[in-house]
Amino acid sequence: MKKYVVKQGFSEPTQRVKDLKAAILNANPRIEAERAVLITESYKQTEALPVVLRHAKGLENILNNLPVVIRDNELIVGTATVESRSCQMFPEFGPQGLDQEWETVATRSADPFAISSEVRAQLEEVFAYWKGRTTSELATSYMSEDTMTAYQAGIFTVGNYHQGGIGHIAVDYEKVLTKGIRGVITEVIQAMQKADKKAADWIEKEAYYQATLITLKAVITFANRYADKAKEMATYTTDPTRKAELLKIADICRRVPEYPASTFHEALQSFWFVQLVIQIESSGHSISPGRFDQYMFPFYDKDDSITQEEAQELLDVLFVKFNDLNKLRDIGTATAFAGYQLWQNVNCGGQTKDGRDAVNALSYMEIDAMAHVMLAMPSLSVRVWNGTPDQFLIKAAELARLGGGQPAFYNDEEIITAKVNRGLTLEDARNYAVIGCVEPESQGKENSWADAALFNLPKVLEIAMNNGRCNGEQLGPKTGEFADFKTFDEFVEAYVEQMKFFVSLLVRACNAVDVAHRELGQMAFVSTLLEDCIGRGKTIEQGGAVYNFTGPQGIGSANIGNALMAVKKLVFDDKSLTMRELKEAIDNNFGAPQGTISDSSISSTSSDVAYDSIVEAVKRVLGENSSISLDNIDIDKIIASTQASQHVAATSTGGNSRYQQIHQMIMDVDKYGNDLDEVDYLARLGSRVYCEELEKYPTPRGGIFNAGLYPVSGNVLFGSFIGATPDGRYDKETIAEGVSPTRGTDVNGPTAASNSVAKLDHFIASNGTLYNMKFSPSAVAGTQGLQNLVSLVRGYFDKKGGHVQFNIIDRSILLDAQKNPQNYKDLVVRVAGYSAQFIALDKTVQDDIIARTEFSSF
Amino acid sequence: MEQVDYEKQACVFNIQRFSIHDGPGIRTIVFLKGCPLACKWCFNPESQSAKPTKDFGEMMTVKDVYEEIKKDQITYRRSEGGITFSGGEALMYPDFLDQLITVCQMNGWTTAIETTAFANEDIIRRIIPRLDHVLLDIKAIPFDVHIEGTGVKNDGILKNALLINEIAQHVIIRIPVIPNFNFSEKQIHYICEFAKHMSNVSEIHLLPYTNFGKSKYELLNRDFEWKDIEPLRTADLESLKELVEGHGFTCKIGG
What distance in Å separates the CA atoms of residue A93 and residue A137, rounded to the nearest whole number? Predict the structure, then answer.
């Protein structure tokens, strides 16, 4: 078996890799119209056909006619667009806001895309056809009035699939690599022959099978068009080296993905065609390669024609290639996700299906490729179990120390148990892949429908404090006025009752979207690569996968824990406040102005750094929230209000009004994130209620709802929908992200914070939890620093945390921390002979550390 | 099972979790209050007096401290870390240390001490052999220099250093490098020459002077003679590091 010799540090990538990376960074993204025109052309001719066939014929038309482009220096070919890093449009799901943004899309600050007048004219014509025919409009029509009200009030958003296609899938790439598309066609034909033609559902199945055959053949045609193109380019090329490369590419594209791959290069090319076509078929993002090191290793291992260096270069160029794909999002979502992100998540390590350690040479080479490429995609997920070799984790920690925020670490011991609890077999659970942000799903077998929604936990608490009223309107059940609760348990009970009600609305919203996709958006190609679609004769939207879930994420666990703790301690334990007093202080925003404050006061408090950091936060935020009455989302206003509340937070302490005193009393109560059992277990209770409630509901595809606790950065936006809360949070202030403690309230260092986070129930949040930690590069300097980072991961995982990821902070962050210390209370830096909380240090010491960091080797 | 007296008390002025530079692995440092030295540059001036005051320090029992330090027990195990006793001068509380070391050992955590070695010989003999690591501060060799900077004679310290060399499981010498005190090739050379008589010492750490204490002196309303002296940077110590290495020791700047 091929080995990998572990060395310290990372080698230099080849010149080709550097050139391809530069081409990505220098690309000017633009909107291209071919896909939209081709699918529309096809749909106009197929109005009488079943949905699944219509989309299949649309894809066939696209793959037969989409321009075929091979870029300079490429070894792995295949692209969706003529220009690198550009995007195609998916009008069948909705206009993605473009109908409102013709004039501004090229100049907006977040993810601008150039658009020519010709493309604009083509797309305007396309959208005119689709008006009234999109999944988005159908889904909206399925939503009841109270569901829409809750959606618009920011209690939840189902924007992701409401606006786009189904994504968040790790398909069975291995099947194509080992059997070829021809093998898949054979499988379909055998299934058709075996099927009971007398069954009532045969006609539907037959349409599905026909549709899959159309798309599978179209994929072969598409690859052959690349073979032709490469051959043609070879005849015009004068450079003999490139000529040989092009002829090799032609050869490879002639063979794969039609036939099984026989070399590592062929396997990578075959993989890429699958990865690409899924993202041409539909606009769903987070199409994740998953356990790439597992299914790709045999091709590397048995390929005697290739050296490790050559294989590394091929892997590197593939990792660059992930960035060739792009997606247009409306301004709200794009502002949230600035950086042209598609969340193609590559994994390494973990366990094999039969429970042995899975680390192989390619696992290490993936880490090297990440270090060589250092672009936004792919994401790298490192699976960790008790049997993971230390040197592998240390290599992963070394990558983390480069500061790109990669990789993320996942805990097999927790995740596999959680997946088994959801009904997966042990083997399928061990074969989980991390997709998108942090969602585990069984590779090739599960349609997790992850990121179905974001759910605003503290908003539900606010409604529980107002007897079911949401922004003054009676939306939830009447569970009692806050001032009338006689015991702490009564208040908790009200929260639970409101949770039940709003989860039921969330479920209805998710199901409306689900049903709309089943009726209008069936994808035949991707449905051949997820077991048991072919066996059942069903698309993924019809429930063809072996395992089906819907995964909506709860945000703000920390706020719930801290709020419950403050009420319990101040009102019921110490009796230092009455419910009435507390409610009044909250209703009056602890004496601070409600929501926004005047422009002059904002500008007087905002340094450029503060402004930028908030813009960044908001950029990461709006989540997949595009459908929250987008017209009403005003980024500047959110920035202003966030700033306003931060300003208030920074200046109000020490004030002497009664409301400010109450605020101070609240801030003095124990907070989640400091390894204090009582408050940590209240955070656990508050988030668990949500997860427990969700798992009671079935999905239209035959699975159940499966909660996650991670933010996709919806926390800033969701905060803007909530007034002041009993955790001391001001009106419209950001809520806590993921399962992390509220920014600035975990003050006992990283081990205390991670112990707290591990006290949540990660098992029931089986669609994933997300925990971010920040470190300065010097805190993890040297071999000892890497070992300590690994020990911290192992320690957190021993306590059954699910995911952790590190920000190894650089100088600019430290400077910002000096200016905005309230945001950085959890920042730990190495001081001299010891480590300390950065903001607790004397200014002179901080300056010293900042200067030192500048000289560090990172 | 060993009997532990969980009620023994000491004045603790800080318990610092996630310490990664005072002994191996991830450690928690227990800072005990009270110090027989009065170094003019001291950056923990609040630790010099052994009594708790309104702002600094509280009396804690072995049990209180155990409750706190056990929170990171998984990380100690994973990183082969543990507990480091520091001060002040931790050896001022031998009975307390004796009990707490036993507790640590019962849990499988490694123990370390950061010490000035200013203590009675019997205390050294009693405590030091029980610890896994000793981080021994040596500040200066010449009698007059030492007394000028720290307010105490160093004959006892140096004698204890030689004793520690004989009875400790593992010793590292740490030199706080202080401008206007021992920040010179001559002073460091003396310490190296002395260290050569400690057969079990192979490693010397140079800790660059920092002025972390400055604001604390203001808080304590105390004069700070070093207040205008700039902190040293790693680069300032490079030549001293070479000197130490020239004497045959492994040398690290910073802990």
Answer: 8
